[in-house]
Design brief:
alpha/beta; 6 strands; 35% helix; 9% strand; binds iron/sulfur cluster
Length: 244
């Protein structure tokens, strides 16, 4: 099905877009989504990792308002079977097929060019190839990018505002749930009976690629299972220079 977004060049007057208004603390997540959809019809997309509960809440709230908003995920070809299963369940529930955004370089080609298991030797490079660059291409014609980012997810994220200009992707990044807690997020998921990743009930509060995700022990940080054993904490989608 064609989407007007694809054939329309991006016309974005950031100066005319009042970021501060979106960061008004009195706004609820739903109000922010309403404003974005109203301000950028046909130019708003939603990313979902299908690895944690906030993306499921975001997806539900956005699609409840407008089922034509493109929902995409970065298909690194290294996701867990449970993640692909969730994507199928979402497609069935909402009647919308999430868009897989992939690197032009398949995993086999990446192995041939850079050697096997690049994620073990240089995870920043691997994330750049498999996530960041494909997302740049995908967001080329979008003006607003809605994410499920929350401030309580990590130290880097704790400074994020609900609306920021992202110069790398040249979009306004909207995080309606920035101030939500884990508890509030799960309460919404349970209340609405939303589908979620089966691994979330098996010690994986945050699910990414198979080689870079492990279960976390009780008392560990929720994101301790991502890139465990390295200093890397982010894939580079929300924040640059994530390996310190
Ligand atoms: Fe590569 Fe790991 Fe990043 Fe996935 S999370 S793209 S496997 S480094």
């Amino acid at each position: 099905m064609s989407n007007p977004r694809w054939s329309r060049p991006k016309v974005l007057d950031v100066a005319a877009f009042d970021l501060a208004a979106f960061n008004d603390a009195s706004l609820e997540a739903g109000d922010i989504i309403d404003r974005v959809l109203e301000r950028f019809p046909g130019e708003t997309v939603l990313s979902c990792s299908f690895g944690g509960p906030t993306g499921m809440v975001a997806l539900d709230m956005v699609l409840e308002r407008d089922r034509s908003v493109p929902v995409y995920y970065l298909d690194t070809e290294l996701l867990f079977p449970q993640t692909y299963d969730l994507i199928d369940r979402v497609a069935e529930r909402y009647g919308v097929r999430p868009i897989p955004v992939r690197s032009p370089l398949g995993v086999q080609q990446q192995n041939a060019h850079f050697g096997n298991a690049l994620w073990e030797r240089d995870p920043d490079a691997c994330c750049n190839i498999r996530k960041v660059e494909p997302q740049k291409t995908f967001l080329r014609n979008s003006s607003a990018w809605i994410t499920g980012l929350r401030r309580d997810q990590s130290l880097e994220r704790s400074r994020s505002e609900r609306a920021v200009w992202d110069p790398r992707f040249e979009v306004i990044r909207i995080s309606p749930f920035a101030y939500w807690s884990e508890e509030r997020t799960w309460a919404y998921v349970r209340e609405r009976g939303l589908p979620y990743n089966d691994l979330n009930d098996q010690g994986y509060p945050s699910v990414g690629c198979v080689p870079c995700t492990r279960a976390v022990a009780i008392g560990e940080d929720r994101r301790a299972g991502r890139w465990a054993g390295s200093q890397k904490t982010e894939c580079g989608l929300h924040f640059q220079g994530t390996t310190t």
